[in-house]
Amino acid sequence: MQLGDQKIGFRSIQESLDTTTSGGKLIFHIFGAIAEFEREIIRERTQAGLNAARARGRKGGRRTVVTPQKIAMAKALAKDPERTIAEICAVLKISPATYYRHISRS
Q: Which of 39, 72, 82, 94 is most buried, by CB atoms within 10 Å?
């Protein structure tokens, strides 16, 4: 069931906007269309900027803290059955999630 079917409307006293009248509905829809248009323009500009950055060789996102040396060290430390994952992560200064993500991949 729609709000209009229940005779429910929006009335803004400060802006003199009343969606219970045909003129108020028109203005409300125009504002909505302008907001949607503006949002699409922002999205297109953002995408164009990201594409331009990629074309220049830039890559977005956070840099990884795991280097190939840390991966090799983690593998060497993991061979010792006395070491726990928490100890290895403390030595390498990485989280367990980072450890599992990079060690299981390689």
A: 94
Residue ranges of domains in the chain: 4-55, 68-105
CB 90 within 8 A of CB 76: no
Tell me how far apart the alpha carbons of residues 68 and 74 are, in angstroms, rounded to a whole number: 10
Question: At 105, is the pLDDT very low, low, confident or very high (cuts 50, 70, 90)?
Answer: low
**Is-contact 58 48, C-beta < 8 A?**
no
5 phi, psi to nearest 5 deg: -65, -25
Q: How many beta carbons lie within 10 A of that of residue 91, not counting itself?
A: 13
Contact 89, 99 (CB under 8 A): yes
Whole-model pTM over 0.70: no
